[in-house]
Structure prediction request, 277 residues.
Amino acid sequence: MEVLAAWGCVGGSEMVQSDLSGSPIEPDAEAEVIVRLADGRARKLTLTAAEADKFAGMGQPVGGVLHRIAAFVIRNWRSFSWWAFGILVVSLLVPAATKQWADGQAALTLKSSLNLEMSKSAGSAVQAAQEVTRVTNEKQARKARSDVINAWHRAQPGIDPVLALYFPHTRAAAMWYRYREAIDGYIALSCCGESQDSIYFIQEYFERYSEQYPEREWLSLQRSETTDREFRSAYYELGQVLLHQQRTILLNELLRTPARGYSSGFGDFWRDLIPGW
Prediction:
């Protein structure tokens, strides 16, 4: 007689008896043993827990190591199932969480670099434009203003491609394009009485994106000449307001805008968690 499978608890609500001793067995306390006879027939016996324990120590082990391993797995399949499930979940969660964290750091670095380039180019342009207002000779002032415009455009070659690649069709990109036009208008306003057309681009930016509307500066700039002290004072104040816009409103919009190609948020985490989703 050879044991084919290890015993285990069998569920049930009716009172059963041991096939070995006839002793009654409480519900959910019986054990089953499958044996194979010499003529090839197999029988399943229902035993009490005590009989099953005693039976385990009788006779000789059959089937070798592989058989005992199989019996062990059968007895503990629930634990193995939970372990396998846990390993599967961890193997999916950890890479997805790691990717999102790494992408978040990379996106923050990208945004910081982009903001630094915006800040430096705008700051240099505003400062240079303010110097133009101190030039009294109109021909020299026009030449100085042209130099400032060219320097401003040369200082931002890497901004638009990054916005187009990582922030296409976003409010942050639209804000930058309008802000760039506002700086263009601010530089143009620095000399030669071209106030109305230049002020329009600056006003459009403030009306669209800013709660801070420098009305006092508009009035001073419109009613005075570029060589007047009142003009220079209002022009300087407007430049500071423009730079503050870039350092606050535009920067905040850029920081909260997801960068394309970088994992962020639950939707991206879910797609990272389940490849091909």
